[in-house]
Amino acid sequence: MTTYPTFAGFDSGLTPGLAVIRRLPNAYELVFHKKIKTDTTARLIERIRQIHAVLGPALREYMPVFFAIEEQMGVQVGKRRQHVEGGEAAMNANNAKTVGTQFLAAECALCYGIACDFFQPRSAKVALLGKGGGKAEKKDIQARVLLLTGLKVNQDEADATALAILASQRSRFLRTG
After folding, report:
1. CB neighbours of 106 closer than 8 A, spacing ≥ 6?
2. How far apart are CA 146 and CA 160, in angstroms?
3. Among 21, 107, 159, 164, whose Cα sits 20 to 30 Å from the Cα of 149?
């Protein structure tokens, strides 16, 4: 029986998302997807624990060949707002809390010996939609994920799936040994 490789993507935005795909000869199979909700009133360390509670077991179970993590530093925030809840800013594109989730994701991958790297959201959009797709809207990403996998997912899971597809494309260029 042929075993096909898995690839993972992590959307590190306001509400993190995780997706794991299996790359088949002519298709992608979405084998795991989850929007990671955290308690926005909790201390940062507790929120990190909540994210780790999803990341660790999923990475351990699926052991992806490559893990693409969304890098938010330098990304234009655009229409996003920085929310303030309980006197503490929520995880947002350009703050230390979001950067912390990116490093948490990388550390989880490295602990399991999984190759990983950081990618700008535009790279994931192009991987999913092709040339010219770098400025796509969230709904366009969701529609393409539905077309490719047959599954309707929320925005965070769609972004994570786009990153997982990017991981499957970039893994061909990794050096081994």
Report:
1. 67, 69, 116, 118
2. 13
3. 107
**Rounded CA separation 134/67 (Å):** 20
How do residues 76-120 score in pLDDT, each as one tens digit? 554 444 444 444 444 455 577 778 889 999 999 999 999 999 999
CA distance 55 to 16: 10
Residues in the chain: 177
Query: Whole-angstrom Cα distance, residue 116 to residue 82?
Result: 28
Domain spans of the chain? 6-173
CB 36 within 8 A of CB 48: no
Condensed to tens digits (0 to 9), the pLDDT of residues 55-75 reads 999 999 999 999 999 997 665
Domain 6-173 has CATH 3.40.50.460: no
